[in-house]
Design brief:
This is Radical SAM core domain-containing protein. By secondary structure, the chain is α/β, with parallel strands linked by helices. It has 2 domains: 91 residues; 293 residues, Aldolase class I (TIM Barrel, Alpha-Beta Barrel), CATH 3.20.20. The chain has 16 helices and 17 strands. The strands form 4 sheets. It has a 9-stranded mixed β-sheet. Strands 4-3-2-6 form a 4-stranded mixed β-sheet, covered by helices on one side. It has a two-stranded antiparallel ribbon with strand order 1-5. Strand 11, helix 9 and strand 12 form a beta-alpha-beta unit. Helix 4 packs parallel to helix 5.
């Protein structure tokens, strides 16, 4: 009986050992150096005996019982399966032996803002997207294909396609297909009201589509349309029905503010009724268009505590499928009025531990807020190397603010101090 890496598993050598990724469902694992040394050898199918001999030749001693226990654990995790034929599993930085320890060797996920064009004019849009964008100044299809090849070579694992509205681009289905062929895990952020059956068929054909994220910002037309525009609510429900009927994996995301925070349970229930795979809430933050239009509707600390307790209640009951596993890990704080994990998050910026973002013109930042505030532009992907930007010395001070006990974000004020701005 031979064992090998399961189809879709990608390994990346890291300072702590191994980052493993399943490109079909977007799941990540972190393992130590010994685990990486064993797993990488299973790119080629091997029996227990063959694997043990291979390890001994490489200087690692492990008896049959220990190796069987290892194989059993990783088979249970579905990283390993019983198979005689080799598959095209990708392994990155296999021979690299010098790593920095304040971030991953490369971004694990890159958000690509393929266009700033959007037929809507949402009140809180982080990217200030609109329908009068000069697309002549944006990157074209061939540019994005070349960029994806470079991201693949750098070992990026997940691509998040955003905008603007990605599905407004005629060649977006082909771009997604190429990303799929490159074995990226794919997340698509879309609120396209003109979604059609052909696009549904094309989305269904993607093997590595982890999730589609779409918005539902109210349990009624009045609250949802406050952000998205008149008539948007009914079109949103139509879109949810299309995703559900096609059995596509989709997350419903709700942008929360003072006018809809009282509907949290109803929004979550409605998302579940329409078959959402998971539910995600995010407080509207005062940047992008919201900086001018939403200041009086931004949540205060009391609201944020209420939202946190609601998320904990959902996680504890299991009635709402929470996308963010953080809440399940914090259930012990349910009922604790002093617990405030969302403090400072409205002004939070990425610390550059996992994620990276590329604008429609190729400009590179750590996240959408830094892009909106035009803060810490790292370069342009058409001119600069991804890994050089990822290792920009300006990020050293920012990364020093990271604590593994918290989110990989920090208030903007701390970033400004770290950068001496």
């Amino acid at each position: 009986m031979k064992y090998a890496l399961t189809e879709g598993i990608i390994l990346r050598h890291e300072w702590f050992g191994c980052l493993a990724f399943q490109s079909y469902n977007g799941r990540y694992w972190q393992f130590n150096e010994d685990a990486f040394d064993i797993l990488r050898r299973l790119k080629i199918p091997a029996t227990i005996g063959e694997l043990r001999e291979n390890l001994i030749a490489g200087g690692m001693m492990m008896d049959d019982q220990g190796l069987r226990s290892f194989i059993g654990f990783y088979e249970e995790q579905r990283l390993i399966s019983r198979r005689d034929e080799a598959l095209d599993n990708l392994i990155f930085y296999e021979s690299k032996n010098k790593f920095r320890k304040d971030c991953l060797v490369a971004p694990s996920s890159v958000t690509i803002y393929v266009t700033d064009y959007c037929p809507k004019h949402c009140r809180h849009c982080a990217t200030n997207a609109h329908n009068r964008v000069n697309r002549q100044k944006e990157l074209i299809f061939d540019d994005w294909v070349g960029i994806m090849r470079r991201l693949r070579e750098a070992g990026v694992l997940m691509l998040v396609f955003s905008g603007g509205e990605p599905l407004s681009l005629p060649r977006m289905p082909r771009l997604l297909k190429i990303a799929d062929e490159m074995q990226f895990g794919i997340t698509l952020l879309t609120d396209f009201d003109e979604l059609n059956e052909q696009q549904i068929i094309e989305l269904k054909s993607l093997k590595h589509l982890v999730s589609i994220q779409t918005s539902l910002d109210g349990a009624t037309a009045e609250t949802h349309d406050f952000l998205r525009g008149k008539g948007s609510f009914s079109k949103t429900l139509r879109r949810l029905s299309m995703f559900d009927n096609a059995k596509l994996p989709f997350t419903v995301a709700a942008a929360i503010h003072k006018k809809n925070i009282g509907e949290l349970d109803q929004i979550a229930e409605l998302a579940g009724t329409y078959g959402a795979s998971s539910f995600y809430v995010n407080a509207v933050a005062p940047y992008g268009r919201a900086k001018k239009t939403m200041q009086s509707f931004v949540l205060d600390d009391e609201d944020l505590r209420y939202m946190a307790q609601t998320c904990l209640r959902w996680a504890a009951s299991g009635k709402v499928k929470m996308r963010n596993p953080f809440w399940k890990s914090q259930i012990s704080h349910l009922g604790d009025d002093g617990y405030h994990p969302l403090a400072g998050t409205l002004s939070a910026m990425s610390l550059g531990i996992y994620n990276f973002a590329i604008s429609s013109k190729g400009d590179c930042y750590l996240d959408a807020k830094q892009r909106a505030e035009k803060l810490l532009r790292l370069g342009n992907i058409m001119e600069d190397d991804l890994l050089e930007m990822w290792n920009d010395p300006r990020l050293d001070e920012i990364r020093s603010l990271y604590s593994s006990e918290e989110f990989a974000y920090t208030p903007q004020s701390r970033v400004m101090v770290a950068l001496s701005i």
